[in-house]
Amino acid sequence: MIPTITAFKQSPDRGRGLARDMRVRWALEEVGQPYEARLLTFEAMKEPAHLAIQPFGQIPTYEAGDLTLFETGAIVLHIAEHHGKLLPDDPKARARAIAWMFAALNTVEPPIFERTMAMILERDEAWYAPRLQSLETNIRKRLSALSAHLGQADWLDGSFTAGDLMMATVLLRLKDSGLLEEHHNLSAYLARAEARPAFQRAFAAQLAVFKAASQ
């Protein structure tokens, strides 16, 4: 059965791999699962048909047979469990990989995403400079802890897992910000993730959608 995911018809990230369907595309590529993408406009995302499967009117969603999922963490975890890849066989290592998925989404991503939104929506406000400084201070704390854990290892806990996949997509938002470059091991970590063939295929697929919408 070929699953269907939803994605932006015209992504606001301009094809940089930041839209969250990238995580799902990458996971599907890693496990070798073909998929189809249903592209939505912002208007279609608020229509009843989409709200029936994504109550908050966002992307991506995942549909396979009678199973419908939303939230990238839940979708990637399902893909990893269903295909027997992206999670270790050892129960303890498996639990740690899932913990890193949660850490990426709940601990590392929030201040990074807030920084992105502040740069877009608050740049002209009087409080912008101190707000940005506060967010970047919080980001640096998270990156320092992550860097200390990673050390000289290639991945967060042994081999590449869904935890690394989620963490890399979070760190991707800091690329060229200067913040990630303060920790050479994290820059190298992201580069290793981006070099994976499955990442390259997912990135190319998302970029192709943006280019087609821009023509």
Query: Which spans have pLDDT < 50 for at least 5 consecutive residues?
Result: none
User: What spatial form do the alpha-carbon principal axes imply?
Assistant: globular
CATH architecture of the largest domain: Up-down Bundle
SS content category: alpha+beta
Strand content: 5-15%
Instruction: Give the spatial strand order of the biggest sheet.
Output: 2-1-3-4
First and last CA, distance? 32 Å
CATH level 1 name of the largest domain: Mainly Alpha
Element-by-element helix/strand order: EHEHEEHHHHHH
- Summarize model confidence as the mean pLDDT: 94
Helix content: 55-70%
Number of strands: 4
Number of domains: 2
SS element count, helices: 8
Main sheet makeup: 4 strands, mixed
Kindly provide the radius of gyration, computed on alpha-carbon positions and rounded to a whole number of angstroms: 17 Å
Describe the secondary structure blueprint for this structure.
Layout: E1 4-8, H1 21-31, E2 36-40, H2 48-51, E3 61-64, E4 67-70, H3 72-83, H4 91-121, H5 128-150, H6 162-171, H7 184-195, H8 197-214
